[in-house]
Amino acid sequence: MSDSTSKPKSETPNDTSFRKTWDRTLYAQQAASRAANEKEESALRSAAKAEGKKYHHRPPPDPSTLTDSSSRTARLAVTNSLGRTTFIPSAGAGAGSVNSKRGRGAGFYCPDCDLTYKDNLQFVDHLNSKQHLFATGQSGE
Q1: Got the DSSP string for the chain?
Q2: Whether the model pTM is above 0.90
């Protein structure tokens, strides 16, 4: 018998050089900054609630940076997906789910807002909505 098979397991060297080394100080700093951000956001939420306003995580865009809306110069390409079969894997309760519009799913997808609509009427309504116009940097006026 060879020597390597006759040694007990406790005496064989363990090579763990392939494992990722974790920088504990970096992760401690990240956790502290995340906790500080959550505390600040909590204070902003409670202040907005005390004033009777709704707290928005993402502030609305600056009106000076928005461009005026204009009519479309080209037709919407909603017929591109007619007659095509596309496999879109379901990711649980998120993208592609029956109850969720978030993410890429079966239907008409808006990459600017990351939303999927089941028919072209909902999709066109979305393209004209305030949410989509703000996401694309238009004022809606």
Answers
A1: --HHHHS-GGGSPP--TTSPPP-HHHHHHHHHHHHHHHHHHHHHHHHHHHTT----SSPPPPGGGPBPP---SS---GGGGTT--------TTSTT-TT--BSS-SSEEETTTTEEESSHHHHHHHHTSHHHHHHTTB---
A2: no
